[in-house]
Amino acid sequence: MSTGAQPGASGGGGSKVLAYSEITANVTISANAEASATLIVQTAALTLDGASAIMVEFFWPGVGVAQNEYISLGIFEDGNPRGGNTFYSTTSTGNNLTLPGVIKRRLTPAAGSHVYSARGYRQINNTTLLAGTGAAGQNAPAFIMVTSL
């Protein structure tokens, strides 16, 4: 896992990358409830002022969804859900799916130290969130990024 702020934040708009972390290996989502959701990727701790808005973004190149399965992926702050959940469900007559996605959530957190994470849970069977190095024939990394607004 790579962590820390990345140089070269977007120019001109005044936003700045405050934290970035990526994974380059698949993660098995085995939790079956939001309260115990499987950790996928998280940032290092950030100290925020309580007045400034941030954008938390989570990207994944694919997640496997089997027939009759329901999964949820979301953004968490200090281990607590902060919304932005994406839900996938397939029917018994459907094919297995592998779906990419992104969640963005604008927040104005309380002053203090915060850790942001992406987590997931499933209904019946374990599922796999895909991530790779981005090399030829590989999936892109999955990542979480926090930017100032």
Jot down its keywords:
single chain; 149 residues; mainly beta; Jelly Rolls; six-stranded antiparallel β-sheet; five-stranded antiparallel β-sheet; 51% strand
Break the fold down into its secondary structure elements and pairings:
Blueprint: E1 17-23, E2 27-29, E3 38-42, E4 46-48, E5 54-65, E6 70-77, E7 80-81, E8 86-89, E9 97-107, E10 112-114, E11 116-122, E12 127-130, E13 142-148
Antiparallel strand pairs: 1-13, 2-12, 3-11, 4-10, 5-9, 5-12, 5-13, 6-7, 6-8, 6-11
What does this protein structure show overall?
It is a single chain. Residues 5-11 have low confidence and may be disordered. The chain is mainly beta and 149 residues long. The protein starts with 16 loop residues before the first strand and ends with a strand. It has a single domain (17-148), classed as Jelly Rolls (Sandwich), CATH 2.60.120.760. Strand 6 and strand 7 form a beta hairpin. The chain has no helices and 13 strands. It is globular and about 50 Å long.
Q: Mind describing the biggest β-sheet?
A: 6 strands, antiparallel
Into how many domains do the coordinates divide?
Answer: 1
- Report the C-alpha radius of gyration, rounded: 16 Å
Helical segment count: 0
Low-confidence stretches: 5-11
State the total count of DSSP E strands. 13
The CATH architecture assignment turns out to be Sandwich
Mean pLDDT: 87
Q: Which class in CATH terms? A: Mainly Beta
Percent of residues in beta strands: over 45%
Distance N to C terminus = 25 Å
Helix content: under 10%
Principal-axes shape call: globular
CATH topology: Jelly Rolls
Structural class: mainly beta
> What's the order of the H and E elements?
EEEEEEEEEEEEE
